[in-house]
Amino acid sequence: MKAQHHLIRPLSFLSALALLAALVSAPIPAHAQNETLGSDPTAKSQERTSAITDPVLHIGADERTRNLSWMSESSGGGEVRWAKASELEGRDLPTDAKRAATTKSGLSTDLKRHYNHASMTGLEPDTEYVYQVGSEEDGFSSVARFATRTAGGDSEFLVFGDPQIGAGGGNPDDATGWNRTLTSALATAQGPQLIYSLGDQVNSAHDQGQYEEYLAPEATTTVPQATTIGNHDVASKSYEQHFNRPNVSQDHGEGGAITSGGDYWFIDSGVLFININSNSRDSDEHAEFIDEVVKEHGDDARWKVLGFHHSIYSTATHNSDPDVKKLRDAIPPVAARNDIDLVVSGHDHIYNRTFLMDSEGKKVEGSDAGFEQEKEEGQTMYLTLTSSSGSKFYDYVPGLEWEAKSVHNDTPAFTRVRVSDGALQATTYEVPAGGAQQPEAQTASEKIDDVEITRAGNDVPETDAGDLR
């Protein structure tokens, strides 16, 4: 039986009071401490030897910056330390490792821990780095590794729809499903620049246990991620505390007293990524943000990708929701005048690819469902990602005029986007469970769709679409 849409439950008085208390707690200053380094670099779990939990590696404003977030038992004094992997002294960072104090910290929404944000800057391309986060009082996380890539070269990133940890209620085990899909995606890709999650990371916005399960895979400390605020994430400041996003607008898509919000942008892989909080229904604010970002940074990128949670061209039941219809009227003209190449969304738990669409939200004449899609300026393709954990799926709605390719096998999936000067290639894979006898077993991913977007007039090297991992 397929799950139906779950409305956000109203907060109890005590829950609201707790969240307000967390919100109004004054930011806690942080100062760099002297070093005492050393821990096992091989696992994310930290073996619980320190009071540091939930460390996350995030994308930065550009390829020379990486943001971080983590939870600690104590307040203040937190920092990130990093160095080139070649400078490791056994299992320890060198004593002259670079350091940066927290840029923001405060009491977490559970009133038990403190959240911390910091950034590593001045990173060099094609370099492997190691880092730790923590403080003298709480100790430090295990040494984690990540690598930077060549700026402007061929690259790729991974896109995931709704992990929604907790929605399955243990049957299915969506934490296991999320880990299985992420593991399969990383095995399929070749050194992805980033992980892009399109919202509903958790099922209950305030549930710290669900966040811990979403962040449990080691990859959340080794591959930078960017996230989107889904309708299941928005009703708490926990999202903003766990995810240290770059270039967050204070004036567009902002949250409220106890809700998360903020449109944001970054450039990576030669791609300008613009992310809007589609829980905010002020379409004019979002349009203004997209216009301003593209005007200022569009010339610095070879491709432009827009992400938000509520898919406007899905082939499932949410496509007729009033808020989705409003977005479907508002987004196409903004996407067209800013020449957005690709829009990625989640929310409806069915994979769908549109035809090339024009400024009026109509199918471009001559556009088909084939692999090669040559776009003129102002034309955009929209992808809807299904569940990446298998927590729930929705019913398919046939006969919609925007549907070029839809897959509704009730199987978790991910999309691998390869970037070059001449093309964006988006290949989508399903990740079946291990079977009734071994449901946690890792199975090979299976390709279900493949599309290449090029620009009219550009010469693109030939690609064998059948020779893909």
From TrEMBL:
Record keywords: Signal
Region of interest (Disordered), residue spans: 429-469
Coiled-coil regions, chain positions: none
Entry-linked SUPFAM superfamilies: Metallo-dependent phosphatases, Purple acid phosphatase, N-terminal domain
Name this protein carries in UniProt: Metallophosphoesterase family protein
Molecular-function GO term, any one: metal ion binding
Superkingdom classification of source: Bacteria
Signal peptide interval: 1-32
Residues in Calcineurin-like phosphoesterase domain copies: 157-351
Transmembrane segments annotated in the record for this chain: none
Pfam families named among the record's database cross-references: Metallophos, Pur_ac_phosph_N
Keyword Signal: yes
Keyword Signal included in the entry's annotation: yes
The Purple acid phosphatase N-terminal domain, residue ranges: 57-148
